[in-house]
Amino acid sequence: MSHITTATPPPSPPTGDPAPVLLAQDGGVLSGVEDAINSVFAPIESFTSSIIFAEITVFGAAFPVIVAWLVIAAAVFTAYFGLVQLGKFRLAIQIARGKYTRNDEPGEITHFQALSSALSGTVGLGNIAGVGVAVTVGGAGATFWMILAGFLGMCTKFVECTLGVKYRKIDADGTVHGGPMYYLRQGIAERFPNGFGRSLGKVLAIGASVMLLFFALAGGNMFQANQTFAQLRSVTGGEDGLLGGGGAAFIFGLLLAGLVALVIVGGIKSIGKVTSRLVPTMGVIYVLACLVVILVNVNEVPRAFGEIVSGAFAPEGVAGGALGVMIIGFQRAAFSNEAGVGSAPIAHAAVRTRHPVTEGLVALLEPFVDTVIICTMTALTIVIASTDFWHDAKAAVAAGADSPEGVTVTSNAFETVLPWFPYVLMVAVALFAISTMITWSYYGEKAWNHLFGAGRVSSVVYRAVYCALIVCGTVLTLGPVLNFADAVLFGVAFFNILGLYLLAPIVKRELRDFLGKLKSGEIRPVDQDTSGSSAGSPPEPSDREKDGVG
Question: Alpha-carbon torsion 384, 435, 282, 235, what sign?
Answer without folding.
Answer: negative
